[in-house]
Design brief:
With about 300 residues, the protein is mostly helical.
């Protein structure tokens, strides 16, 4: 097992060092991460283009709408599995490449497969827990639902780094995920919230850029909902698929890097052996007046002027 203490992301972080480390790692490994993410995004975008939502959009009966959506179950399942596989490969590369120079994209592809099944099982368990948490959150209005979703996301981000760094045992992984996620919970929760906001803003900007060549179709749909089929056809355009894949490839590597930072931050706090703070005795504590010469009376035996 590599010594992760040599990993550039391994340290006790503040929000500033976390963001700086993320940016530095992203820049240094941008080309490889971008190409890997572009492949992931292109495959997902291409498979998504076969999901024809025109019939669903024109349907007003909720039951018939659900019935028609069953036809999209297999394509959506394929998209989800592809996403999970490529996410696992990306996470393995981010975690192991800096501490193992022999690790390549192909190595990460092969070695990450051993984590996929345990990862999938934990995600199924987490999805049930998340569904319950979000339902409870909805009862506490929108804020509760958002909190529940961010909480589940915080737990989710620890799964792959824990599993890859400490072994694919499902029970131990779940235990470690909860332990590390709840160590300085509010810091972890706040960092996850911050990165989500940043990604949403960046994604919104990138989406606006890639829509520029298709502004006509977009505004036609925006001002005339009956022309919704134009938006569906736009998503099948090869240029749109390529541009969307390249735009998504810019943001996809962020989460694996950020997940690694979260894990190493918690692990470093565990590994760091700091002495327990003990207040010094009053007699031995250095005082300000000790830094200056003591005043003596004229007849004091230690008065240097008397000597």
């Amino acid at each position: 097992m590599p010594d992760f203490k040599n990993h550039p992301l391994y340290r006790v972080h503040t929000i500033d060092t976390a963001m700086n480390s993320l940016w530095d790692f992203y820049k240094k490994n941008f080309l490889v991460l971008f190409i890997m993410s572009a492949v992931l995004a292109f495959v997902m975008q291409y498979v998504s283009s076969f999901v024809d939502m025109k019939d669903v959009q024109s349907e007003t009966d909720p039951l018939l709408m659900l019935e028609k959506m069953k036809a999209f179950l297999v394509p959506m399942l394929i998209i989800s599995l592809i996403n999970l596989v490529l996410t696992t490969i990306l996470q393995h590369y981010v975690l192991f490449k800096p501490v193992d120079s022999s690790n390549t994209v192909l190595t990460s592809l092969l070695k990450s497969l051993r984590y996929f099944l345990p990862y999938l099982i934990i995600l199924i368990i987490l999805s049930f827990v998340g569904a319950i948490a979000i339902v409870i959150g909805v009862l506490a209005l929108v804020v509760g639902a958002v909190f529940a979703a961010l909480y589940i996301l915080t737990l989710y981000l620890f799964i792959l780094p824990v599993m890859m760094a400490e072994g694919p045992d499902i029970g131990r992984t779940i235990s470690r995920v909860f332990k590390l996620a709840h160590r300085d919970f509010w810091s972890n929760f706040g960092w996850v919230s911050a990165i989500i906001v940043i990604l949403l803003v960046v994604s919104l900007i990138l989406s606006g850029i890639i829509l520029l060549p298709f502004a006509g179709s977009f505004f036609k749909t925006l001002f005339n909902p009956e022309e919704a089929s134009a938006a569906v056809e736009m998503t099948k355009n090869p240029l749109f698929i390529i541009l969307s894949a390249l735009a998504n490839a810019i943001t996809i590597p962020v989460m694996p890097i950020f997940a690694t930072i979260l894990y190493f931050n918690g692990k470093a706090k565990e590994d760091k052996k700091e002495p327990v703070y003990m207040p010094a005795n009053e007699d031995s504590r250095v005082r300000v007046e000790d830094l200056y010469a003591k005043p003596y009376s004229d007849d004091h035996p230690d008065n240097p002027e008397k000597k």
